């Protein structure tokens, strides 16, 4: 840690605090959004400096890329419906502010009361890493050791989609046709985004990356297509779309149910025989591993023994 | 050599500060948005230099995601925030 690095870190920290304050206190919503995008960029740099490239990737995809675009779209919708361009200063209410201060103080106390050298589960994760089939411990925990937990979040996403469909009663916005430049940009960019998402998913097995970051990039591709006015063909939006959004969670539940029914109690023991016969388990890069609920069971069972 | 990399990152971060001034000053919405895009480009540069300085190849992936997703915010701006000519952001 030399003087230059200290200067970089100090500037970064000061810039983050200043940006956060300006983004919150700014009366102009548009300026607030731009400051928020800048905040996301600097935050990703801060995660890099904290040697957490996994979090930096997620922040780069979600904080700096997706959220900014969604906020801009939300602002345009606000402008269309209610003309609430600037927040009045008295929008600061003492009750929520007090609550926030209390919550911040509580979080600070919680951080201060942390054990300085927590034992954690790092040793166990490292010990079982070989059996997870991936070499990146973050991916091993999220998709293998805690596969049920992570993959059942698909149901949360499904519920969110249902809520969005239920609430969005407005007639679809008439989108101005995308110009030639935007159309060409999308034709070039969308395949690259899909490729980058596939790459991030693949890289997650051995390096920072993984399903969340890949999903965020894929989601950004969808947002981009919607912004440009690209829509699904009408004959695809009914039953085919509903089938498509339930096939993921449904397939996962079916596989989980089949495994649970096949091996009710001795999941950890019978896993040893199954693993030798499963070609996916010998090949760490095998794509089956990413969605293999079976590989979550031996990991969990072994950890709890 | 590492010192050169760290000096470069510091210099690029200072450039971000100059961009911040444009975000705050405006005067039009396009100025602010372009400054945010400049932020993205500079952040990519910082990440690439940091990847070289620390030998962390994963940072190049972060830079890749930055570069790809910068377009999303720009397209959202052009399609959602810009077209209304009477929008008050456009007035100086």
TrEMBL record, chain B:
Ranges annotated as spanning the membrane: 6-24, 36-56, 62-82
In Pfam terms, one family for this protein is MrpF_PhaF
Q: Which topology term describes how it sits in the membrane?
A: Multi-pass membrane protein
Transmembrane helix listed as a keyword = yes
GO MF entry, a single one: sodium:proton antiporter activity
Q: Which Gene Ontology cellular component annotation is one that this UniProt entry carries?
A: plasma membrane
Give the highest taxon in the source lineage.
Bacteria
Compartment(s): Cell membrane
Which residues are in coiled coils?
none
Indicate the family of this protein.
Belongs to the CPA3 antiporters (TC 2.A.63) subunit F family.
Q: What is this protein called?
A: pH regulation protein F
């Amino acid at each position: 840690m030399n003087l230059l690095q200290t200067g970089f870190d100090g500037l970064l920290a000061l810039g983050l605090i200043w940006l956060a304050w300006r983004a919150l206190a700014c009366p102009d919503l548009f300026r607030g959004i731009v400051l928020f995008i800048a905040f996301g960029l600097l935050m990703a740099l801060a995660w890099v400096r904290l040697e957490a490239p996994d979090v930096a990737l997620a922040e780069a995809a979600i904080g700096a890329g997706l959220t900014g675009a969604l906020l801009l779209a939300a602002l345009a919708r606000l402008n269309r419906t209610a003309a609430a361009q600037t927040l009045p200063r008295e929008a600061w209410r003492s009750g929520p502010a007090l609550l926030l201060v209390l919550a911040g103080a509580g979080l600070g106390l919680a951080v201060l009361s942390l054990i300085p050298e927590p034992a954690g589960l790092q040793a166990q994760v490292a010990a079982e890493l070989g059996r997870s089939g991936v070499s990146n411990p973050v991916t091993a925990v999220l998709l293998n050791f805690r596969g049920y937990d992570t993959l059942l979040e698909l149901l949360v996403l499904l519920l969110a989609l249902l809520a969005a469909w239920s609430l969005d009663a407005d007639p679809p916005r008439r989108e101005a046709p995308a110009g030639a430049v935007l159309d060409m940009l999308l034709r070039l960019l969308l395949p690259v985004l899909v490729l980058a998402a596939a790459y991030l998913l693949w890289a997650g097995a051995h390096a920072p990356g993984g399903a969340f970051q890949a999903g965020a990039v894929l989601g950004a591709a969808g947002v981009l297509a919607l912004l440009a006015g690209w829509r699904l063909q009408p004959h695809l939006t009914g039953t085919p779309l509903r089938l498509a959004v339930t096939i993921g969670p449904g397939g996962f539940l079916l596989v989980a149910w089949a495994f649970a029914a096949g091996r009710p109690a001795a999941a950890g023991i019978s896993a040893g025989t199954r693993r030798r016969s499963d070609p996916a388990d010998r090949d760490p890069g095998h794509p089956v591993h990413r969605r293999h609920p079976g590989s979550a069971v031996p990991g969990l069972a072994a950890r709890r023994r | 050599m590492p010192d050169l990399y760290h000096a470069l990152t510091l210099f690029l971060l200072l450039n971000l500060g100059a961009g911040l001034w444009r975000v705050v000053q405006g005067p039009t919405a396009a100025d602010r948005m372009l400054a945010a895009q400049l932020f993205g480009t500079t952040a990519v540069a910082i990440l690439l230099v940091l990847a070289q300085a620390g030998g962390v190849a994963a940072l190049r992936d972060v830079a890749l995601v930055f570069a790809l997703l910068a377009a999303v915010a720009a397209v959202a701006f052009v399609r959602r925030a810009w077209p209304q000519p009477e929008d008050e952001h456009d007035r100086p």
